[in-house]
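Re: beginner question about structure tokens

> Can someone show what the tokenized structure looks like for a real chain? I only ever see the sequence side.

Sure, here's an example I had lying around. Input first:
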Amino acid sequence: MTNWRVVDIIKTSTDFLVKKGVPDARLDAEILLGHVLKKNRLELYLFFDRPMGKNEMDIYREYIRRRGTREPLQHIVGETGFMNLVLKTTSAALIPRPETEILVEKTLALNIKPAARILDVGTGSGCIAIALAQSLKDVNVLGIDVSIEALILAKENAGLNKTQVVFQEIDILTSLPKIDERFDVVVSNPPYIALSEKDQLQAEVAQFDPELALFEGGDGLSFYHRFAEILPDLLIPGGHFLFEFGGSPQEKAVLNIFMEKGFHDLEIIQDYNGDPRIISGKYLP
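And the corresponding structure tokens:
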């Protein structure tokens, strides 16, 4: 076929992606084609008979080839949406997940006072820190990460979204951030997957997300033990914390870690699928 039309290329690329085991193959084919043609998905349906130019076809074929290797859609188009932000995405950090938006929403619901201080541990792309800083104009947000590459990406995303966030390179498992005052809120989506579970992950995650951001070398609970140990040094009296964790298999263990250390107002928050996903609590000495 020499004169590819939009309708033809969507069907052919969808069939190809299905054979490669790509989830939501047609949706991805349409999003990638819309990215090439600079049209949203609705507009594609209005231009089904539009012929594809050679340059457009060359770019689109390369996109589909990459998606067929299970490279994440967000890496191919180079960005993703999170809350009301558009964030650059690369292999330097986790692709922001919808579940993490819940953590941001629950943090915003705390009615944080002006000039409050917020710490985002393992900031990655900066999605949590930037979303909070943008929504809470007067707060001071510090994002820390052990990965220099992730911090470079986070700083770029903060600039792209015209948001002021301070970033530091810190390994929270061995050090504490350099601060003059304690924080009102500490948030984190830390690594919580045991390395032994790597084979159970989707190819998009296992092959393309950074291992530092995914895997914890033991049982997946090291960061929660560390948080329970250091939160009294990080939080003001009455300060809050909200951490993501690995769902039902970790719920009881994570809850027990913070119960045993005497933290107050502990709550398990569910994700969009109804699975336990976030623990929140308060530090009261």
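Each token stands for a local structural state, so reading them left to right follows the chain. The CA atoms of residues 6 and 46 lie 10 Å apart.
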